[in-house]
Amino acid sequence: MVVSRRIVLTGPGIAWIMALLVIPCALLLVNSFFERGIYGGIDYIFTFENYARAIDPLYGEIFWNSARVAGITTLISLALGYPAAYCIALSPKRRQMALLILVMLPLWSNYLIRTYAWMVLLNGEGLINRSLIGLGLIEAPLPLLYNDFAIITGLTYAYVPFMILALFSSISKLAPELREASTDLGASPLMTFWRVTFPLTLPGIAAGCVFVFVLSIGNFVTPDLLGGGKRTMIGNLIYDQFLTARDWPFGSAIAAIVIFIMMALLTLQAVLINRRDRDEKTV
Amino acid sequence: MSRNPIQAWLSAHLLLVYVFLYGPILVLVALSFNKAGMPNVWTGLSLHWYGELFANEKIIAAVGNSLFIAFAATLISTVIGTLLAMGIEERRPRIATEALIAAPMIIPDIVMAISLLSFYSLIKLTLGSHSVILSHSAFMISFVCAVVRTRFKHFDRSIIEASIDLGAGEFTTFRRVTLPVIAPGVIAAALLGFTLSFDEFIIAYFTSGPSSASITFPMQIYAMIRFGVTPDVNAVATIVMLVSFFLIFLSQRINREVEA
To answer: Model's pTM, two decimal places?
Structure first.
């Protein structure tokens, strides 16, 4: 009786997710081992060719470029996010929720519109260039839009809230007594941060970095809109293979590699956190 | 002694982060009231672009289509997601189940988009608004389930048993006992899901097919901004953002009120 009731309740949800997520993802993996059909379909002939092609230097450069852009975005988000999360964690409990909601709110608005706002700000006639010219700091507009700088700015803007949330959950768990003890024992604030706060918040740092990196590396909208489509990133490559070149098996293989990178990073993060927990218990 | 200056620096930094987060949005809102002409030079206050907006049939049609998709997907995912939350909360779920339910929230949009496109193509499903509804409902279920589950945190299960002991049937118990407790969570989840669907671009872009009848609002925006800044986007962006913020704010409020 209890079992059947549970099945009635969870059955539809599980079935829905199985049919529209698990099976399609499995299909993607299967397709990545087949050949491309002449007219853009799939020929069911087994091959490793798609993976071999993906590590070809031509595509290797796209992977490298995406990893570089995503990496820089992650580091800037960390540098911006850590002090912000720290500050929220230090503020009175009553105000923390409001401060966090303010961080999250932009996430719930249209991603394209938020990206478009940066097109308006960064273009040659945009607010930033006009202000700089108005102040006499520069004479000709700076090339702010349609390059890596614009892509990294847009990605940081979009994903820094995730970083702050991950860091906050880690920093807020930290007992203030630990910092006080360190200060009482004569450590400078910098020393306290470096030897106490920073190591103890590593799980949050790892989680935030994995989030931002994975979201950035698969993004195709921002490189397309802010990079002007000049710089191809992995997301754009997948997009092209599916909608332009119509080589679905190759596109599937690249997507499978992205998933693999994501899984590897998530596992690494989980292992790091587990080891930390174990260390803490033995201390 | 050295604590206060550090805290002052941190507060200043946090303030700058908020400026970074909200500055671009505010600039866009301000420019939507710009008189005319250039998208980024201030020429005076006007509602010109709002007038243009309501004359733009393409945008109106795309908004209508997105509303339809969001309503349908919200309906499906709220029912299934709520049932899922109820079932999951009856007994401690296995880690595999937890992972499965969280997966749609974690998977990158583009991967979900192309895997669904491949799947629909395999089962020969014609693409259109209905396939976008299916796709959206798949990830919305996870969000709905997560929000509704928060209501069960302080839920005393013995009142369900009490209700059944007193002779109420399964359905009456649900309607009179469980539902009133979780209702704020269900409404909040529906509002959240609706916003997510209305603003979702990538999955809709891949699974909506070639018909112009299935163009959603974000797809229309994408087509407009792909080749540079255009002033007519500012007004619609402002309206959509304000509505999104309002719905999220409402969702937060509803889900909190009863807790207190």
So the answer is: 0.88
